[in-house]
Design goal:
Blueprint: H1 13-16, H2 43-53, H3 59-68, H4 81-94
The structure holds iron/sulfur cluster.
């Protein structure tokens, strides 16, 4: 099944309960917020989403998942699309 790239990790909980590779999603701080919170249209919205991510017990896994899956939209692992592109670029340069 193709993942819904516009869903937050918490939205995907029902889909991943039996998938150990993505089981972390059900523990995200975002599980109690509307998905739109993580697809902001401006910097204020990005900051709001980041504050929810702050202290999330699965932040590292969330960010790596978004990087590995090349998810282009939304805030994942406290990083915006632009920040994730920068991380990927730095990793390519470092290789
Ligand atoms: S880091 Fe943010 S987007 Fe990722 S699971 Fe945690 S709260 Fe959700």
């Amino acid at each position: 099944m193709k993942p819904n790239l516009h869903a937050t990790p918490a939205d995907l909980t029902a889909l991943v309960e039996n998938d150990t590779a993505t089981a972390w999603m059900s523990r995200g701080n975002c599980r109690n917020y509307p998905p739109a919170t993580f697809f902001p249209s401006d910097g204020v919205g990005v900051d709001r989403a980041r504050k929810i991510c702050d202290g999330c017990p699965v932040l590292g896994q969330c960010l790596e998942y978004a990087l590995e899956q090349r998810i282009e939209h939304g805030v994942w692992g406290a990083c915006s699309e632009r920040e994730r592109r920068r991380i990927l670029k730095r990793r390519r340069v470092a290789v």
